[in-house]
Amino acid sequence: MRSPLARVLLGAVVVVVLTLHAPAIINAQPTAGASAASDVDRRTAKKLVDQGIKAQLAKDYDRAIEFYEKAFALVPHPILLFDIGQAHRLAGRLEQAVPFYERYLALDPGGPESAAAHTFLAGFHFEAALAQRRLDRDVEAHESLKRALRYGEVALEAEQFREVQKQLEEVERRLGRIRVSCRLEVAEVALDGVKLFTCPGSYEGWVKAKDHEFVTTRPGDQPQVRRVTVSAGELRDIDLSPTMPTGSHLAPLCHPLAA
Q1: pTM for the complete prediction?
Q2: Half-sphere exposure of 88 (CA within 13 A, CB side)
Q3: Are 213 and 227 in contact (CB under 8 A)?
Q4: Domain topology for 4-124
C-alpha cells in the first residue's frame, strides 16, 4: 500500500484543480489586514494564474511559481499559496512546498484544498520521521511524528495513522524528557553546544538518553557548565539557577573590624 505522501506525489488531479482556481481570483476576498484589490488587479491576477497553469502544464514549475507569486502580490488569496506549494511539490522540492501548504491552511483552514494539504503534510512528516529514525535522529523523528498526527486519521488513513502512533510510542521509549529552568538575568543556556533559551526562562522537551552538557553564559561571569545524565523514559528536572551570585556579581566582604 502506498503511503499518503506517495499518493499525493502520484496524483494527477492537480492540473484540474488549478484550472478551477483562476476564476476564483476574480471574486477573491483579500486576506486579513490586506487592502481590497481593485478590479484591474483581479483581472491581472487571473491572467497571471492562467499563465501559471500553462507553465505548470509545460512542467516549467519555476516559471509557474513566479506567476502565482505575482498574482498573490495583487490578490492575496490563500488558494494561490496552495498553488505555489503544488508547483514546488511537482518540482520535487517537498521541503519548500511545506510552508506554503501550512500558510494556506492557516489562512483558510476549511478551504477547498484543505484535505489535499492535510494529506500532503501528514505524509511528508511521516516519511521524514522514518528517514530520521534510520539516521538515529529520534528527537527529530519524535517531532515529525507528532506533526503527522496533528492532521488526523482522515489525512493518514486508519492503517497509516496506527503506524504513526506505533512509531511514536517506540521513539518515546528510547528518549528521555527534560524540564530546565533558570532564574538568572540576561543569561543564555546552551544544550550540547546549541542555544536552548534565554534566562530567566524555562524549557521542556525530549532528548536522547545519554550524558548531556548544559552551559549557562552570563556577561561578566565565567560560563557555568553542568553535566546531566538522562535515562530512557525519565523526566529530569534541572534547575540551572545558582544558589548565590557568582563572579563579578559577588559583593565585597565587609567586617566591622576591617581596616
Answers
A1: 0.77
A2: 18
A3: yes
A4: 1.25.40
